Amino acid sequence: MATPERRVKDKCVKVLRRLGAYYFFPAASPYGRRGIPDIIACYRGKFIGIECKAGRNKATKLQVIELDKIETAGGASRIVDDETDWDELEGWLRRVASEAKGQGDIPPELASAYLDDGGFQ
Q1: DSSP 75-118
Q2: pTM for the whole thing?
Q3: Hey, what domains does the chain have and what are their CATH numbers?
């Protein structure tokens, strides 16, 4: 029998599949990063992290930090739960993708930080 969170993930995947988005479930391991979203997706060139919750469960502080890092890097993130309006999620994904069109430049604050670390040289 599927857990409540699994049912939320399944509903989210239905939306992603309907849109033709690429997605996967990152595997947790001792060598992996903690707090990463349950679903990593790419839709029309936009990187997306989705954290799934069910019942009274809320995202942990570490999960929120990881979602914020995705946003800071130019991606989009969202927390969904068993009360999510799945049609609204689809609309959000479409908006996120349409806003991404023509954008590929790294934000100046990230580019300068990356160059300071020796990247892009």
Answers
A1: -EEEEE-TT--HHHHHHHHHHHHHHHTT--PPPHHHHHHHHHTT
A2: 0.81
A3: 4-116 (3.40.1350.10)
